[in-house]
Amino acid sequence: MQDSDIRRRKDQHLDLAVSGDVAFHETTTLLEQVRLVHDALPDRRLEDLDTSVELFGRPLRFPLIIAAMTGGSARARQINLRLAQIAQQRGYGLGLGSQRPMLTDPDAAASYRVRELAPDVLLLGNIGVVQARALATSRLRALVDQVGADALCVHMNPAQELVQPGGDTDFRAGADTFARLVAELGLPVVAKETGCGIAPHTAQRLHHAGVRHVDVSGAGGTSWVAIEAQRATGGQAALGSLLREWGVPTAASVVFAKNSGMRTIIATGGVATGLDAARAIALGADAFGMARAVLQVLEREGMEATHRWLDELERSFRAVMLLAGAGSLPELQRCPRVIGARLRSWLRLDAGHPRRRRRSRT
Ligand SMILES: Cc1cc2nc3c(=O)[nH]c(=O)nc-3n(C[C@H](O)[C@H](O)[C@H](O)COP(=O)(O)O)c2cc1C
Asked: In this predicted model, what pLDDT tens digit does every residue of 300-319 receive, in sequence order?
């Protein structure tokens, strides 16, 4: 594919993500099925809550990673620079969008170079597993080093590819690619979905390949099938409308990842409020990710409004922590919770797995 085509596609993705009808219609994250239990005697001050966490050797003040979105065009550069400023100022992590354009266009690198603006931020590089399969590990390591990232997210997006005009259809050797990168990259490798989530068998195969870090990017938020369906024509558009609701909800994906033995779990996919975020962490996530919601407020309303919106998000997260009786994120992970029937029916998928019987508290 030509560089200019990739750039055009990326900018179309941004437009659709900001203004299009691209959320799941019926599928929810199932985070609403997690009821944290009220503690009428919190015995602590709101300002003493500790929301910090360390991931991949970087401290986060608040457990939010602005999830991978963009890179490769002038517009993408402006977005990445603003997201980096926000992440630096507020103590969040930041995911760069797919670095595929850097493979063919030397000028593309500028749109991912945010390290100077964000010297302390946990920065995650990004590439598709299909691209990674064809590249030497040294080439991938160079991609990460060029942008000063701390870890590499390797994304899996087969549903999106099948609906995307000209998308990939050969997904062979994905697990082998992960095994090679985990063994050779010399930096943490994060297996990342993009909105269809992680099933128990997928989590187990990733674990078997040596992967210990996962961004579940589950169903219930942005539907990449819906985004591509709007760009597709004919049979691919029809496939897109058929598969719009496809995927494993975010809440179930987090539990599956936990039960498979993953060490780091990032809960992305439709996390919309501080309450959702707290629920995801209670299920076992170490941090949560948000993509489209941040982009929308930033593109529509600008930096100041984004900071106000993030203040509200943090305020609600902290209120939920206090009311659930948690003073820190590890305490939040141990909080009592009531799980609704719809989430339970997903969790039954994993019921026979031996690791679950030993480890799971859900
Ligand atoms: C405009 C846009 C571009 C994205 N590009 C990438 C990408 O390049 N690589 C990737 O791993 N995920 C990408 N994603 C997926 C997000 O990182 C995230 O997994 C997904 O959108 C679900 O989160 P959300 O419901 O908060 O949007 C993109 C998402 C958006 C909205």
From this structure: 999 999 999 999 999 999 99
CATH number of the structural domain spanning residue 291: 3.20.20.70
Nearest to 68 by CA among 94, 34, 95: 95
Give residue ranges with CB within 6 A of ligand 1.
Answer: 13-14, 17, 67-70, 97-98, 126, 153, 155, 192, 194-195, 217, 221-222, 268-270, 290-293, 295
Residue in 131, 194, 300 to alter for ligand 1 test, most ligand atoms within 8 A of Cβ:
194
Q: How are beta strands 264-267 and 287-290 bridged, if at all?
A: parallel
- Per-residue pLDDT, 8: 83
Ligand 1: residue whose CA is nearest its atom 19: 194
Neighbours of 235 (CB within 10 A): 9
Q: What is the DSSP letter of 110?
A: G
Q: What mean pLDDT do residues 178-205 have?
A: 98
Which tens digit of pLDDT belongs to each residue from 106-162?
A: 899 999 999 999 999 999 999 999 999 999 999 999 999 999 999 999 999 999 999
Q: Is residue 361 part of a domain?
A: no
Domain count, the chain: 1
